[in-house]
Design a protein that fits this description.
With 78 residues, the chain is mainly alpha-helical. It has three helices and no strands. 55% of the residues lie in helices and 0% in strands.
Length: 78
């Protein structure tokens, strides 16, 4: 969920289309959010609370690769 659309749940800005207009639209939403300090503060808190660690990313990639080669991964297995 994009912060510009739902700052209570969002942690970024969703790019609807990878075009010049799409990028400009996302930038406009970011600038609009910046003009609303309360919403911006909530969006920052949501983003900062998110687990963006390498450990989590590695685990997600590992699960994807194992699924692609047809091996099931049990919870907690590495």
């Amino acid at each position: 969920m994009a912060a510009g659309e739902d700052s209570a749940n969002g942690d970024g800005f969703f790019l609807r289309e990878l075009t010049k207009d799409g990028i400009l639209h996302a930038a406009d939403r970011a600038l609009a959010l910046r003009r609303e300090p309360g919403r911006l503060a909530r969006a920052r808190r949501v983003a900062m609370a998110k687990d963006s660690s390498w450990a989590r990313a590695i685990e997600q990639y590992e699960r994807l690769f194992l699924r692609l080669i047809g091996r099931q991964v049990k919870s907690g297995e590495r």
